[in-house]
Amino acid sequence: MAFAHKSLLGIAQLSTEDILTILSVAETFYEISERRIKKVPTLRGKTVVNLFMEPSTRTRASFEIAEKRLSADGINLSPSSSSTKKGETLLDTARNLQAMHPDILVMRHRAAGAPHFLDRHIQAAIINAGDGAHEHPTQALLDAFTIRRQGMPFGRLNVAIIGDIAHSRVARSNILCLTRLGANVRVCGPRTMLQPGLEALGATVCHRLDDALDGVDVAMALRVQLERFGGEALLPNAREYARQFGLNRKRLEHMKPDGLVMHPGPINRGVEMDPEVADGERSVILEQVTSGVAVRMALLYLMAGGSPDSVVKES
Amino acid sequence: MGDSLLIRGGRLLDPSSGLDLVGDLLIEDGLVAAVGDVGATKHLEELDAEGLLVTPALVDLHVHLREPGAEYKEDVRTGAAAAVAGGFGTVCCMPNTSPPNDCRAVTELILARAAEAGLARVRPVAGISMGLSGKGLTEVAELKAAGAVALSDDGHPVGDAGFMRRALEYASTFGMVVVNHCEELSLSRRGAVHEGEASTWTGLRAQPAAAEEVMLARDLLLVGLTRARYHAAHVSTAGSVALLRQAKSDGLPVTAEVTVHHLLLTDEACHDFDTNTKCNPPLRSETDRQACVAGVLDGTIDAVVTDHAPHSPNDKAVEFEDAPFGVIGLETALPALLRLVERDELSLEVLVARLTSGPASCFGLEAGTLAPGAPADVTLTDLSLRHTVRPEHFLSRSANTPFAGWEMRGRAVTTVVGGRAVYRWPDGLLPHP
Lengths: 315, 433
Known about the structure:
Helix content of chain A: 25-40%
CATH superfamily of the largest domain in chain A: Aspartate/ornithine carbamoyltransferase
Mean pLDDT of chain A: 92
Largest sheet of chain B: 9 strands, mixed
Strand order of the largest sheet of chain A: 7-6-5-8-9
Mean pLDDT of chain B: 96
Radius of gyration of chain A: 19 Å
Structural class of chain B: alpha/beta
Structural class of chain A: alpha/beta
CATH superfamily of the largest domain in chain B: Metal-dependent hydrolases
Number of helices of chain A: 11
CATH topology of the largest domain in chain A: Rossmann fold
Shape of chain A: globular
Number of helices of chain B: 14
Shape of chain B: globular
Distance between the termini of chain A: 23 Å
Strand content of chain B: 15-25%
Number of domains of chain B: 2
Distance between the termini of chain B: 13 Å
Oligomer: heterodimer
CATH architecture of the largest domain in chain B: Alpha-Beta Barrel
CATH class of the largest domain in chain B: Alpha Beta
Strand content of chain A: 5-15%
Order of helices and strands of chain A: HEHEHEHEHEHEEHEHHEHH
Number of domains of chain A: 2
Largest interface: A-B, 27 and 22 residues
């Protein structure tokens, strides 16, 4: 039986069962990256277009590596997208790509909902690699995968997400994903970074970091995205943010003793967390990156029509 | 001319005169001549209205006809055609054209086009400020003489409180009402959706209800200062309705309108990023929607409008945040509103009042009444006719409706303007005799 969704537009569309399916397929792909020859023929003959209309280094590299390890033909396009009406419309770009019959379109775009818009107009499966401040579902899935590989059961999990929740697609997707898996999620930051109504997504709101960290299994710090402020003063400066909401060794004492520290990257060292936390024994930040390749392999496989029950990955 | 028309046997409902009876409506020389039991007549053209609702033709205070400048979206003729297809006999068109309607020449152009079309009556709303820039008063007396019925900078809120004060004072000198689109731009930042559930789920930049309420509250204080006639365009929040209710009970000379889509839809409709749900003010919460309905019911809100805002498919087939604000509504307004009657949220009597006498009195229009001697603008509505909203069948040049595919019950079946039937369903526009 194939995966029930044509495209992966967001966590919002996924059931708990869908998420667990993706995680278990990712588990079977994880070991390929540890082989001496890191390549299987699973997606041979499939064409994947990586359409990154907003700058990205690590997400794009992660998808490219996942595609190569599955033997898919990956094409990279990074046309600029501006809101001014210069050049080709997004719809025309997508229709031109569709005319070349790709199987999967991986897309990142500055505008929330851009993948949903294209999904109504083209046949290729779409994987949302980040749309504005809306969703970043592959990041949330790789975060869940990382947590599960650390042996933590979701049902008793307490997670604190700290930072600019309002402007973060990572936060939105993670809240949806982790709560669907049964975890309790707290979000923490200054009120300028926490939009009203977050409770509707299933999160609990805290404004003091020590309250947010109290007894949690996972502390996930978000990048403070100074470029997203759009001219609005959400913070006095990075110094005050670091003092009030930055993770340091002392603050980690509020967490469970074996609690994990996560960050989707790239880190502003000294702002969201001290270097000794980022590089410390509780940090699984680089493990998140490794997990990302396995999760993206799983998604490419499922979106290409692969069965979750009998994963083909012999070399 | 001596032309006459007898509309026979319908339910005559005219809130302006308290009329609600089954009977006949006699029209002579383009004017209402008599209502009630007209009895046997001869040599008359007759319209059988048995089983139909007969009301004054509907009046819409807020439409965009896009001419001059954006005729690919709509022009005066197609807009007036859409109006009569929806049962509207009078529409007031906003000045945000290109060039904007801030001078006599543009007002006269629009009126000339409307006269050529010979469909709905088109009453232009002119700018408050030159170029809708918020600076420099327009020639109010001359615009009024040319045929403008109100003043508004439309989607450009008057941000400067001092200018608003002078505009209210100056306009009231000539008996013109000032209309404002209340939106404090430093708060709204032109957010694509309502700040609330829609923004929580979509991550789209959002505008809070307070962006509207801050400016409305300011305007109401300025009305207190100037005692000038003021009309609040498309209010959409519970807070705005409360402010208006208080202002009216304080005796301020204030009127207000709400759109059809704010009475029917909430921000939940935006979750799928359908750009045909993107409008300004944005679709709000269910609490706000209910407050607007309550405002319509108790008269805090005088008029229900469409804010008919045509955009071409090319304009709307883009990323949600890049799409222009606005939805069309002339051909769906009455069927959509009849749903509220069917759900017992509104009575038919109140609904007809807010679509006829209510709007007419906001701008002092000679319309929205079946009183003898009034212009014979009449709409015949079949309340039980079932139909599906098919944008490809619209007479409007655009199709950007949030109601596509909705199963509706009830619609206008004949629209009479100046004593002449100009539209009949399903035939369409009727040729001039």
